[in-house]
Each structure stands twice: as C-alpha cells, then as structure tokens.
C-alpha cells in the first residue's frame, strides 16, 4: 500500500499573503491532488506545522485552507493522520492545545496526534512522534525506546541535519534513540536531507529566499517495502537574475510574472538601459523586486562573497572566518533567529 507524506505546509504563512497562497494553491491543484487521484492514494500523513502561526490564524487563511485542502481530502475520501508540530502547538511546553484539534473538528476523516502513538497502515506499524517538549519528553522517549515499529514519522528537531540551505543544526536531540528504526521520516526542517536511516522530507513549496533552487514537494511511502520516493513541485516563486548589461529587448520575462525577483548587478555601464530593464521586469507583473549591487559585508583578500551563496550561508562563513573569542555557534544561532524573524516582516 502506498501512502502520501506531506509536512510543514504552513497555511497562513507570510501573514496570510494572498500572493503566496495563490502560489501554494498551484501545487495542490496541479500536483498534489491530481497525483493522489491518479494513483488512488487514500491515506495521507501530515508530519506537522500544518498552520504557520501558533498564536493566531486569520479567518481568510482558515477559509483558504479548508477550501483548498481539507475539504478536498474529505470529498475524495482520504484519511488524514495529522501530527502536531511546534508551529501548531499553542504553548511551547505542551501539545495539548493545538490548531488542528481546535479548527478542524468538523472533519471526520482527520485524526490528530498530540502524543507519541503507534498506528497501523497497510500492515505496517508506524510510530507517530509529534513535537517533543518539556511536558511529553520523558514519555515520548520511553515510547520510542519501547517501540517495535520498523518506521517512525514525526516532527523532530535532531542534531546534525541541514535546517535550511547553508545552515546545519548544531543543537537538538541526539539521533541515538532513532537508530533502532529501519526508517525515520521527519518534518520541521524545510530542506531535504538524510543520514543513514533518518530522512528529513522538506516542505512542499518555496517560502523564503533560502529555498531558491532547492527541491520541494511531497513523498510517497510504500508500507510493504518501506521504500519512498519524492514527487517534486515544479513551481517556483523566487528567482535570482544576474544583470550584465543585458539587452532588455531580448530578455525573456514571461516566466517571471507574479514572482519574487532578486536582481544581482554584476555589470552596469549604462544607467538608462538598466532602468529600461527594470521597467520591463515591472511591466511583466512581478510580485516583488530586490536589487543587489554590492554585498553588505566588505570583501577582502581573505573573504570573498560567492555569487550563489544565500544569506545564512554567507553570514555563517563570515563568522567562521572571523576572529571572535566567544562561541561562534551562539552568534550563528542569534543571526539565524533574526533572519527568520526578518523574513516574516512584510
């Protein structure tokens, strides 16, 4: 039996931006639901962070999520097993109050898991592990240690995995309790990575600049063979363009409509032609434009910014190359949190 795994959908993200959700909807309308229908998938496991904001969700985003996603699952007769993630738990130290239980009570096809629970799907025993916090840590670890299930799925913060492109998590739980399982699948980190038997599956679509050119989508899991494969989302939202005195008349902007553009200027010798290039981008109907003409951090012979680096990897490398006497990991953690908060500012 084949089932679908999806995680970190973050409905209501970017303060309920309609542009972002229009982009999300293309994935559900043209990729996710058509695949489920064509391949007769009747079970979906959602591994957490279904909604974005643990404290509040605006009414428009709730209505959008129900119409675009939850209603369609119900109409298609698809069973949804939904694990509580850190973004859907109202409190940081307990999963008891969570968005899924509160907002989706009318859906009889949805089961929410706020505590570690063993379920059976297609003859396969699967241990579902929601967000581990102070209240449930001892019980969760006990159930993980006792479990005879070959597979675990959940919303885990494990040490040593890529959290976002350019940043490896240097804190979090040790992987040792999960080595016993044949396969472990997790949400929480938005980029795909794996370490032996543990797989982070990544989220379905681009949400921040760190996601550029990073594969997104959902996963199909076979309950008999314990194998999996990814179904990629072909739609992009963020684009980097490198300007080198381009002829604006010949530059094809068709693909850029409703996209978020970062224009990196490598060569500009004629300001008027550059302005016409900018005008052409705007006339295409782009959503947002950022122009980068130089790096914020000064380059030197010892530190040169690489063109394809994202913001976090750039900052992390700068910190690594600097002569700080304090713990560099602490500084990286502070910058990561600041960057995440800055990305949420409209």
CATH architecture of the largest domain: 4-Layer Sandwich
Report the average pLDDT across residues. Answer: 91
Which strand order does the major sheet show?
4-3-2-1-13-14
Q: What shape does the CA trace take? A: globular
Domain count: the total is 3
Q: Using only CA atoms, what is the Rg?
A: 22 Å
**In the CATH scheme, what's the topology name of the largest domain?**
Purple Acid Phosphatase, chain A, domain 2
Helical segment tally?
Answer: 8
Oligomerization: single chain
Structural category is: alpha/beta
What's the helical proportion of residues?
Answer: 25-40%
| Alpha-carbon distance between the two ends | 43 Å
Q: Specify the CATH class of the largest domain.
A: Alpha Beta
The main sheet comes to:
6 strands, mixed
Report the strand count: 17
- Low-pLDDT runs: none
Order of helices and strands: EHHEHEHEEEHEEEEEEEEEEHEHH
Strand content: 15-25%
CATH superfamily placement of the largest domain: Metallo-dependent phosphatases
Describe the fold and architecture.
This protein has 346 residues and is of the alpha/beta class. It has 3 domains: 2-232, Purple Acid Phosphatase, chain A, domain 2, CATH 3.60.21; 237-293; 297-346, no CATH class. It is built from 8 helices and 17 strands. The strands form 4 sheets. It has a 6-stranded mixed β-sheet, covered by helices on one side. Strand 8 (162-164) and strand 9 form a beta hairpin. Helix 2 runs parallel beside helix 3. The longest helix is centred in the first third of the chain and has 21 residues, at 18-38. The chain is globular and about 70 Å long. 31% of the residues are buried.
């Amino acid at each position: 039996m084949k089932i679908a795994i999806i995680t970190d959908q973050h409905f209501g993200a970017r303060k309920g931006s309609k542009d972002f959700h229009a982009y999300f909807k293309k994935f559900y309308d043209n990729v996710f639901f058509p695949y489920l229908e064509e391949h007769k998938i009747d079970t979906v496991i959602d591994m957490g962070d279904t909604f974005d904001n643990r404290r509040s969700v605006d009414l428009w985003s709730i209505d959008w999520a129900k119409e675009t996603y939850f209603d369609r699952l119900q109409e298609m007769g698809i069973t949804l097993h939904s694990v509580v993630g850190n973004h859907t738990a109202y409190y940081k130290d307990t999963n008891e109050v969570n968005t899924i239980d509160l907002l989706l009570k009318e859906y009889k096809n949805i089961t929410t898991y706020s505590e570690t629970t063993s379920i059976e799907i297609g003859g396969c025993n699967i241990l579902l592990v929601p967000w581990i916090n102070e209240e449930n840590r001892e019980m969760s670890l006990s159930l993980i240690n006792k479990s005879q299930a070959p597979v675990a799925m959940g919303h885990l913060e494990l040490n040593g995995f890529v959290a976002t492109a350019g940043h490896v998590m240097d804190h979090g739980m040790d992987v040792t309790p999960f080595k016993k399982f044949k396969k472990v699948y997790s949400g929480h980190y938005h980029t795909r990575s794996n370490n032996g038997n543990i797989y982070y599956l990544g989220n379905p679509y681009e949400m921040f600049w760190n996601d550029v050119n990073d594969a997104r989508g959902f996963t199909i899991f076979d309950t008999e063979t314990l194998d999996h494969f990814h179904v990629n989302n072909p739609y992009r939202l963020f684009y980097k363009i490198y300007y080198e005195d381009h002829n604006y008349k010949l530059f094809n902007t068709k693909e850029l409509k409703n996209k978020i553009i970062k224009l990196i200027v490598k060569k500009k010798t004629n300001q008027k032609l550059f302005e016409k290039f900018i005008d052409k981008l705007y006339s295409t109907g782009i959503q947002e434009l950022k122009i980068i003409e130089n790096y914020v951090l000064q380059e030197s012979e010892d530190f040169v910014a690489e063109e394809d680096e994202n913001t976090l990897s750039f900052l992390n490398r700068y910190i690594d190359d600097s002569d700080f006497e304090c713990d560099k990991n602490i500084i990286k953690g502070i910058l990561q949190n600041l960057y995440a908060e800055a990305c949420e500012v409209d």
